[in-house]
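Service request form, structural biology core

Requester: graduate student, group of Dr. S.
Request type: structure prediction, single chain
Budget code: on file
Notes: please return the result as structure tokens.

Sequence provided:
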Amino acid sequence: MRVMSSGEAWVGTWRPHKARGPIAALYGSPGPKYALPGLTGALNHDPTKKAAPRFSFGARHERKIEISPGPCYLIPSNITRLGRDGPAAFSLYSRQKDPKLPQAPGPGKYSPEHAGKSVFHSAPAYSLSGRSKEVINIQTPGPASYTLPPVLGHNTVDKSAAPSFSLYGRSKNNNFHDDLQKTPGPAAYNVVDPSIYREKHPQFSMKGRNFPPGASTKTPGPGSHYPEKVTFTRAKAPSFSFGMRHSDYITPLIVDKPEE
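Core staff response, request fulfilled:
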């Protein structure tokens, strides 16, 4: 908005004032940039609409000039559709070269005395190798660290054992020197409920006495209820709310960042 100085004079009756309503120029939109897809043609057709079948015309191929050798190749007269016709013919080849001497090993190259283990049965043979250096670092237990399972008693592992019995000490209960005064009397035992081992009859309980509400009862009054707001048992009319109107003239909130 332009501010006029006191020395300038206004021309006409128009004076600058605040807009009474929203101005369409203040709200930008993409305009007709976004259009609906077309219903004709094969490209960018609307996928929600039915399209008729479409066909395309192929391009014209270039005519190639066939280059052939022509009738310079004459088929022999003795060639028929069943093959060559005529008597048996032979051809003469040149003499072959003398074959080279075979480079095979002689009898002295073989050692039949070493083939005894492959042909005949022999006893197993073993060799003694040197002690490895890694054996020093291996902390394996010796033969005395292992014990064989017992073969006597009831703790046998791989042997069948006869039934074994053990003798316990004399019990202090029901002994001849037991004090019978410390035993429970007849009153220490409760009678078993007959409903446990026989048919159980229905049982009833008595509740406390209910008193009717009086003047001292705290109940809500008639003004605490709103029957006009009940929408569970009757139809409700649609309700709408108005949103906040946004404007480009509102200054955004600027918060100063603290200096690091």
